[in-house]
Write a structure and sequence with these properties.
Length: 263
């Protein structure tokens, strides 16, 4: 038992012994400290600047005015044949929901934008972009009713595999829910933030270590060249600092031009 404890203490002293300080270890320390400072800001900048947009669902529709002057909305299905109209055309609209994925190297934030509605009413000039309708607006309520009906109709006509049907149902549900709530859905994935921050820390550690080593090398080269230049000037009888010609001057211990001590 005594020998076992002694062996463990020896191993503790061995692994906890201070490492030898060299230029390389100093550069690594500088790189690690700088990387800790800049890793999270780099992750945050990537989260707000690196964006990948994808359309969850995108539908066109038309508006009609009935005999009692009410407006009816209908979602157009490109796969179904056109039907003869018995009502009065009132306008058309385009509605879509976009998902934005942000972050690098992993997507750390998934954001579902609010519903974007482009409205073209024939009695008004031009198409209105990104129209915001109040929750109790009759046109908004009618478009929501048309989306509910179109979802059920297209699901009954869809003959794809289960994954396509599930994605289709999820897209329609997200579109309807987002518009009913009039909100933006944001999903921040903590595990992706942790991974991205760690990845940036590793990359920045390497980058800052190499930068510190490169700057130190350039500084050594500069100092060496300055030393060579000073030695050459001394051999030629010039001031080592400013290059002033010292021939024929009384020796006073300092250069008369810059005041540098003459050795």
């Amino acid at each position: 038992m005594h020998n076992y404890v002694r062996e463990k203490l020896r191993l503790i002293r061995y692994y906890s012994a201070p490492r030898r300080r060299t230029k390389l270890t100093k550069f690594v320390d500088v790189g690690l400290i700088a990387a800790v400072v800049f890793a999270f800001p780099a992750t945050y900048l990537c989260d707000i600047s690196v964006r990948q947009e994808s359309i969850i669902i995108d539908r066109d529709g038309e508006l009609s005015r009935l005999a009692d002057d009410e407006v009816m909305a209908r979602i157009l299905n490109p796969d179904s044949p056109a039907q003869a109209r018995t009502d009065i055309p009132y306008g058309d609209f385009h509605i879509k929901l976009i998902e934005v994925r942000r972050g690098w190297p992993l997507k750390s934030t998934h954001e579902q934008s609010r519903v974007i509605l482009d409205l073209n009413e024939f009695d008004k000039p031009g198409t209105q972009r990104d129209v915001h309708l109040e929750v109790d607006d009759p046109l908004r309520i009618e478009i929501l009713r048309a989306m509910d009906y179109a979802r059920d109709r297209e699901l009954s006509m869809n003959s794809g595999d289960e994954e396509d049907i599930a994605a289709f149902r999820t897209g329609y549900a997200s579109l309807i829910d987002r518009w009913r709530e009039d909100s933006v859905g944001i999903d921040r994935r903590i595990w992706a933030w942790v991974f991205n921050t760690t990845a940036w820390w590793v990359m920045l550690s390497v980058i800052f270590t190499l930068m510190a080593a490169a700057l130190w090398t350039l500084l050594l080269i500069f100092l060496h060249n300055q030393q060579l230049l000073a030695s050459q000037r001394q051999m030629e009888g010039l001031c080592a600092n400013c290059g002033y010609n010292l021939f024929g001057l009384d020796f006073h211990g300092r250069c008369p031009e810059c005041g540098t001590i003459i050795e």
